[in-house]
UniProtKB/TrEMBL annotation:
Similarity remark: Belongs to the ABC-2 integral membrane protein family.
Membrane topology (UniProt): Multi-pass membrane protein
Lineage: Bacteria, Bacillati, Actinomycetota, Actinomycetes, Micromonosporales
Principal cellular location given in the protein's record: membrane
Chain ranges passing through the membrane: 40-61, 81-99, 120-147, 153-179, 186-205, 248-269
Compartment annotation: Cell membrane; Membrane
The protein's name in its UniProt record: Transport permease protein
Domain ABC transmembrane type-2 span(s) in chain numbering: 41-275
Keyword tags: Antibiotic resistance, Cell membrane, Membrane, Transmembrane, Transmembrane helix, Transport
Top-level division of the source organism's lineage: Bacteria
PANTHER family referenced in this protein's UniProt entry, alphabetically: NODULATION PROTEIN J (PTHR43229:SF2)
Amino acid sequence: MTATTTIPPVPGQPADRLRWAVVDSWTITRRELAHWIRQPVQIVLGLLFPIMVVLMFGYLFGGGMAVPGGGDYREFLMPGMYAMTMLFGIEASYAAVATDASRGITDRFRAMPMAGSAVVVGRSVADLLHAALGLAVMVGCGLAVGWRWHGGLTAALAGFGLLLLLRFAVLWIGIYLALLLRNPEALVALQILVWPVLFLSNALVSPETMPGWLGVLAELNPLSATVSATRDLFDNPGWGGGSWLGRYAVPLALGWPILLTAIFLPLSVRLYRRLDR
């Protein structure tokens, strides 16, 4: 007697298809979390890097930094470091998705009766959970070096929410680039491009000190909006300034990630579905 395996049909009703996609996405999320549990050293090293940067800026360079309007430099520094840590997600997403694609794992997933969006959505959920863990570690580091929020718990939670929203948006940029290039070696080129974005912002330097056109680009940087918004919500010292972009930092910190997600999420799902088998 031989046993036969029946592949379940694709659900026809929208509600059933949505439930199917959620279940499959959670399966992929669990796969990624299992990989992290089996490789704790990689996770620990990834968390230690931003802590090292905080200690370097806070204690090595902090004595020579003057905060406009006065205030503690480490309270000024930490919102920028939180936002910069969120931007590192584009590299982590790219590396994981590009590696799966180059090894044929993505093709195996596409050959299974899975929802077309499950692989990329599951990956983004896992990365967001990892980002929440990294943000918690960074907050602990900030508290240890003297950073505090002064705007109340609700405002602080809103600030943390904006940081995770930024991370969610850049995750989709990383996923899209990984599916487009499918080359893990291109991560080095991506890292070279990410660092100018990090420093062309108001995280460490005031845009008012830059040449006019460069200062405008720095203020238009989505990272700058999140940094300004979180400094306001945490009631930490900032650069000040009366520009329109500075006055509406919170709406921009919401709008930029939503716009980026609206562009790169559907592009990533469509590109995944069109990959060659």
